[in-house]
Write the structure tokens for this entry.
Amino acid sequence: MRFNLTICTVLFSAFQAFAQNSPVVIPLETTQNALVLQADKDNYLGIIYFGKKLGQPTEYQQIPAQSRQRDGNAGTYNSAYTPAGSWNVSEPAIQVTQGDGNKSLDLVYVSHKTVKENDNVSLTSVVLKDPVYPVEVTLHYKIYAQENVVEQWSVISNNGKAPLTLQKYASANLYFTGKDFYLTHYNGTWAKEMNPEEEHLTAGIRVLDSKLGTRANLFQPPSFMLSMDKPATETSGKVLLGTLAWSGNFRMDFEVDSYHNLRLIAGINNYASEYPVSGNQEFKTPAFIYTFSENGKGEASRNLHNWARKYRILDGEGSRLTLLNNWEATYFDFNEEKLSGLFKDGKKLGVDLFLLDDGWFANKYPRNNDQAGLGDWQENIKKLPHGIGYLVKEAKNAGIKFGIWVEPEMVNPKSELYEKHPDWVIKQPQRPEHYMRNQLPLDLSNPEVQNFVYGILDKLFTENPEIAYIKWDCNAITFNAYSAYLEKSKQKQSQLYVDYVKGLYKVLEKLRAKYPKVPMMLCSGGGGRVDYEALKYFTEFWPSDNTDPLERIFMQWEYSYFFPAITQSAHVTDWGKQPSKFRTDVAMMGKLGYDIVVSHLDEKDLQFSQQAVSTYNAIKDVVWHGDLYRLVDPKENDFSSLMFTTKNKERAVLFSYLTGNRNGDGSEIAFRLEGLDPAKKYKVRELNLYPGTKTAIKEDQVYSGEFLMTAGFNPVVSARRTSVIIEISAVQ
Ligand code: DGJ
């Protein structure tokens, strides 16, 4: 199999370089960019270039000679994987304790090879080894040429017999030269996800990290933007978008060195996570994924979207289901009759699926609020005397698919599961328990717990093969990190944070082997867990419990730098004070769903919502698979606008929203559209008008793409038209 994929393999070694009397230079090139590694005369592997690729690869070798940075530290900061305890005194990518207790590691280049998987994807592996101890590190760079994306990870091998202990084990170590560096990172908490902050990096180390374990991204996601020389805009400037594919603790060090260049080290957080590697075993880090553009954040994020849809997200280029969720409509208070009514409401609305949320399970300690029952995954017989099977059938009779919520990694102390298996719970044996939302994580480092979690989903699917959707929640962070299983099996407690995530992936892997297609929403009390490793198994994520459309305009804008619209679940709810048109128009720029009481809609709102679902069905292909252009930033203006364009530039959809209303603000003048063909002619048409309202847009006017992208277009956003959706179609 592997052989078929391999078009060509190039092998090179330090020995060959020596024989040819030339340095080993490894250019890792995408269509636009290059990361160039070079082994120096002592075989230390450094990064000699990162940026726009050169026409003549042979010229990369000339780059080091241009540098006048020649003091004692020259040549150490740019290490391609910086070891600790030998010559290096800056932040390491790897730090170990050798089997004999020695704390040193050195790494020199041994060989490298490139395996081409196809015309677009190749994997370069570079082997480094310690000249003294039997430790080897292989750096892997997977290049997606067309998408300008690199996926980088490391494999650390203990080739000796004595156990090796990893103190730090980064996925990637990069080096950027430049005048200045500006880091955009995000902070947040429940219902306040993705608040951006941009800072000028100064000397020293800036760390982005999480120590929260489960729900690792509650305060900060593992995604950032790094502008070089000056802050990048949507359409200009050098910018790197980076994200760690790991659903647990992460750490990213940004170290401005004594030359004002930047070292970046990204990987699993080594906090309380010393990891043992026994003799002849290896440790594979998660992947750090990045893309770079010299043309601003817009191009960089389109790179990432193209890559993610094609190579990473489950069914990334496929379709999604619109849905009606009952969480905010009923909370825990429902029964079969009420649900049957909601199925019909969903059908009336025109969505594809009904999603039953929290509260359907547990009997001894019924799940009637968030204080009890979590862990006891049997239908609550009071609420659902005829079981899930009956609901699936009822939904089918109503002409709608059925999906269900689970939170399989967690337990309420008030549950039968906790009573039966206290040793499955993460908690310190000698300390009081500490809860978030009255619950605790189960210990997924324990294979028995992995089987239990898998079993919950497997039972649901086996008994109800027609379940068409899963929402997988995870509401608590990890306090009192301690595993009875690791203790009993004589493993190290410091493995827990890492082994938890590995355990989670084992469950998801097994689940996807048996149920490869069922769409699943990744949720963690909102956006507490959003990363590209999880999205191998999930089709979409829940960005936040905050569905106030005004907040969502800002939040979805920030998420959109890293994740394409097809992954961003966006529901129309009763949050916020805006009219239903505004709430719906905002949700339509993501993956549309509803969480409202349909029977409470007045006649006009119902008619509008029904039309909106069918309008969404007509444009969803453009939103899900098109190229995104962010045009007017809500952080800098009183309105916001963005558009999606099909790859062939035949169709586009423009969304605009009023976000501030001082002095009667709005889109007073035209702004430039993007992503169209200047030579094509287009017609514009307003979509999703509220019943009884008229458009301010002339529909018979034909514009050239050049006009729309140069003179611009005004969708006429104002206090009277607070949200506007425009379809732009090429005319023949
Ligand atoms: C948190 C999620 O973010 C909500 O959407 C909802 O599913 C609740 N959990 C249910 O407990």
